[in-house]
Amino acid sequence: MTQSLTIRRPDDWHLHLRDGAMLQAVLPATTAHFARAIIMPNLVPPVVTSAKAMEYRDRILAAVPEGADFTPLMTLYLTEDTDPADVAAAQASGLVHAVKLYPAGATTNSASGVSNFDKVRPVLEKMAEIGLPLCVHGEVTDPDIDIFDREAVFIDRVLDPIRLSTPGLRVVMEHITTKDAVDYARTQDDTLGATITTHHLVINRNHILAGGIKPHYYCLPVAKREEHRLALRAAATSGDARFFLGTDSAPHTDANKLLPCGCAGCFTAPNTLSILAQVFEEDGALDQLEGFTSLNGPAFYRLPANTDTITLEKSGANYPSHIDTADGLVTVFDPGFPLDWAVR
Ligand code: DOR
Ligand code: ZN
Q1: pTM
Q2: How deeply is 249 buried, as exposed, middle or buried, from its count of CB atoms within 10 A (0-12, 13-18, 19+)?
Q3: pLDDT tens for residues 48-82?
Q4: Beta bridge partners of 329
Q5: For residue 185, which of 280, 102, 296, 272 has the smallest C-alpha distance?
Q6: Domain range spanning residue 196?
Q7: 234: which residues sit within 8 A by CB, 6+ positions away?
Q8: How many angstroms separate the most distant Cα atoms in the chain?
Q9: How many angstroms separate the alpha carbon of residue 177 from the centre of ligand 1?
Q10: Ligand 2 centroid vs 3 CA: distance in angstroms?
């Protein structure tokens, strides 16, 4: 039985680091294991220009713990006022690696996102021309659409039409949660990639709602039925290069999670690799872990894979149940089963 596994150092292709005290507190969990991460721009106010992205990158770099080697890959938050020239300049300077599309109102701090997709057409066309990926939060926000159907409806009503009308646009379907998304991704060409989170490989909607409500399992897109979780597991462990890790690790204080209207997000940065090793081993696919965490993402983003490695050992994972921040405690995602694998 495999007791130790050495893989190229992973990257996280979808990460929320927040700002200020929260950034200081959560960043070390990522830099301990990951070399790079695509940084989500949904701050308050959002990161809407290259100037704002540069300032945010500098604050992240200032918070990197001594001795750690970490590169934040910045993104711009797409609004109906985004300037195609600013986007192109941000990519050309090497600062920005993607633009993030939030449908207005879809999730945390998405109020400045897009309602009228015609208004962002010039930006999307520029991005197709220069090869800059569009990271998509793929849920419709129409109150008439059931929350469990919002991803599948988004693919039909928004994503597919955008891709058909913008040939060459490179798109990442982020944090996919349905068999519909897996099936769609599998039929597309190499302009399409899809990230999968750690938590969506582990929980289904019963974990959130059966036997009492579990706010720490509430995230967006919300976890779906078991058949969808199994489709995500099959995609992640398949070796198909279209699928790669984006943790969507999204810290909120317990005070903000445990409210009558609590925040969406699972904080998985500290134990993601332990959980993934367990999941891939359970599915007889440990040999595919490196592709999912360390190779497929860089290939999509046209970046070299990391040259250094990490080693996972089957010695029992040790991670805190909470981390302490100046804003209050943040609960670490509990997969609900013991974790055998630890990053050495
Ligand atoms: O669960 C989530 N939390 N989903 C998102 O899309 C946003 C994120 C956050 O920023 O908290
Ligand atoms: Zn996210």
Answers
A1: 0.97
A2: buried
A3: 999 999 999 999 999 999 999 999 999 999 999 99
A4: 324
A5: 296
A6: 4-343
A7: 182
A8: 55
A9: 13
A10: 33
Q: Which of 136, 137, 263 to mutate to test the pocket of ligand 1 (most atoms within 8 A of CB)?
A: 263
Of ligand 1's atoms, which has the minimum distance to the CA of residue 40? 10
- Compute the average pLDDT of residues 323-339: 97
> How many other CB atoms are there within 10 angstroms of residue 145's CB atom?
16
Which positions are catalytic? 248
- Ligand 1: list residues with CB < 6 Å: 16, 42, 107-108, 137, 219-220, 248, 250, 263-265
Q: Which atom of ligand 1 is nearest to the CA of 16?
A: 10
Tally of CA atoms within 13 A in the half-sphere of 64 that contains its CB: 18
Number of domains within the chain:
1
Give the model's pLDDT for residue 1: 66
Are the C-beta atoms of residues 49 and 284 closer than 8 Å to each other? no
| CATH number for position 123 | 3.20.20.140
Beta bridge partners of 98: 75
